[in-house]
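2024-03-11 09:14:02 INFO receiving multi-entity request
2024-03-11 09:14:02 INFO entity count = two
2024-03-11 09:14:03 INFO echoing inputs for audit
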Amino acid sequence: MLILTRRSGESVMVGDDVVITVFEVRGDSVRIGIQAPRSVAVHREEVYKELQAANKQAASPDEEALQALVISADAGPGRETPGTDKPEKDTGS
Amino acid sequence: MTVPHETAHNSDQSLLEFVEPIAGFPSERTFSLTGIDEAGYFHSLRAVDSPELRFILSEPVNFFPDYAPKIDQRVLALLGCSDAEDVVFYVILSVAASLVDATANLRAPIAMSLSTRRAAQIVLDDDALSFREPLAR
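2024-03-11 09:21:47 INFO inference complete, emitting structure
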């Protein structure tokens, strides 16, 4: 990992097309601006990691599970209306 | 009752070009989108170069009628189109052994331009939206 020190207003270039600029430093946090081509996604790391994990989990599901889902959905998703099929509240004790 | 598999004659099969790859799958850019069930709730998004890779998509209106991601300039520019009406969203489903556990990724839907056939997974700013929202409520 390349580690650099920058002041507010200074920038770092990544390749030819990505520019990272420090806008403001306040206490523990840094406000950064990122210029990148549209085809390059820019995300907070923890968000991107969660996204990757969600995508990987969703990839190539088991065929049986898929068929079960399809059968049950085609039996009628969204037919539930608010207030129906709810268990009665337990008002005891 | 048998559930129809995607077959070549499904009239809504078409190719999509991802302008940004789907996170976690950087080498896949071209996918085919095919309907799975006759009612049209589910679609298969299959990587053309790695056909063992596919995602199950649904139009969000099927399970989340109030879900309405904003289509901003960045999305339009990314997809190469100028009209927000031209953009459709799909959500990636996580299918589990039990249906009760099936979830939809509302935080990062797939946006697609009907005219340019370009697509991208868009991460929305709203952190109240879940990556794993249960389908069953």
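2024-03-11 09:21:48 INFO post-check: The helical segments of chain B are 73-79.
2024-03-11 09:21:48 INFO post-check: Chain B has one domain: 14-123.
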